[in-house]
Design brief:
single chain; 328 residues; mainly alpha; 2 domains; two-stranded antiparallel ribbon; 12 helices; transmembrane; membrane; transmembrane helix
């Protein structure tokens, strides 16, 4: 049994499969295209003005405030605990959406959803700490594709349930709660990474089962570009591997060293104009996309009020997501 667990954790397929299941269930949210009609309808009884000016902005600013500290904590705790935090935040968000009432309660919902989106970095970074570099392109395509597929299916499902089965928005949110709860359960089965980008760069890497090669240890003073995958080994003729534990130095000096290394890596990365331009494009595009996605339902509701006309939010978001997948 122990040997099976060891082999399971040393392959790329098992963590990729579990992470894809996690990504599928956390994006399977059929209620999300109908958030504004739900908040302004009889379930929550908020006005469009309250939703626009007092509820949705909480998500924007909480996301911004949490993003940098969450990024550093994610690296320090090696990804998996942050995925657990994301799953727990999902559950809290939808429990409040279902059973809490009032303006303040919905603002708390948006804060926890800000936590959800800020911790999303762990989903996209986790897999690179548990698979070898030769699989990076493949696992990246799997992890990103499954989220787009799940979002498309969720939007289609939500639209079909609303249009043809007359399912209430409350029950759509109940389905979403069940889905994100499954995602939370999936996160427990993810193997715990032994290394991370900054705080755990000297983590001991185990050789594959049955291998007679010595254990390799990454040194924290090596450039990021020279980091190898977790199956890399140091040849025997280069001397013994460093076996000094990471926490020999004082925690303060270790944290300072990590911050210095982070600064150097940022400087090295953005000395490339192409990478700088790409990063600016990605940041602006992501910010614009999030803002449009956040407020577009308010625009739709103003053009065709949900209480007096048919709602096709799910169909529109399904088509948009499908097209984004097709052209990517």
């Amino acid at each position: 049994m122990g040997l099976w667990k060891s082999e399971r954790s040393n392959t790329w397929t098992f963590p990729t499969l579990i992470l894809c299941l996690y990504g599928f269930f956390y994006m399977m949210k059929p209620s999300e295209p109908f958030l504004t009609p739900y908040l302004t309808g009889p379930d929550k009884n908020l006005t469009v003005e309250e939703v626009t000016s007092q509820v949705f902005p909480v998500w924007t600013y909480s996301y911004l405030a949490l993003l940098v500290p969450v990024f550093l904590v994610t690296d320090y705790v090696r990804y998996k605990p942050v995925l657990l935090l994301q799953g727990l935040s999902f559950i809290i968000t939808w429990l409040l959406l279902l059973f809490a009432h009032g303006l303040v309660a919905m603002q708390v919902v948006e804060f926890f959803y800000g936590m959800v989106t800020a911790t999303e970095v762990a989903y996209y970074a986790y897999i690179y700490s548990v698979v070898s570099t030769q699989h990076y392109q493949r696992v990246t395509s799997y992890c990103r594709s499954v989220t787009l597929i799940a979002a498309t299916i969720a939007s289609v499902l939500g639209q079909l349930l609303v249009s043809f089965a007359d399912v209430s928005y409350f029950h759509l949110n109940a389905i979403t709660l069940a889905s994100v709860s499954l995602a939370f359960l999936c996160s427990f089965f993810l193997p715990m990474p032994q290394k991370s980008m900054f705080f755990h760069r000297r983590g001991v890497l185990e050789a594959p089962p049955g291998s007679e090669k010595p254990v390799a240890t990454l040194s924290s003073d090596r450039p990021l570009s020279h980091l190898e995958d977790n199956n890399s080994v140091v040849p025997a003729d280069r001397g013994p591997a460093l076996d000094r534990p990471t926490n020999d130095a004082k925690p303060q000096r270790h944290v300072l060293g990590v911050l210095v290394q982070l600064t150097q890596d940022l400087r090295d990365c953005y000395s490339s104009r192409k990478l700088l331009y790409w990063s600016l494009w990605w940041a602006l595009a992501t910010a614009g996309f999030n803002q449009v996605l956040n407020y577009v339902q308010v625009l739709w509701d103003s053009r065709a009020p949900s209480h007096s006309s048919a709602v096709y939010n799910g169909a529109v978001e399904a088509i948009a997501t499908f097209l984004s997948k097709s052209v990517s």
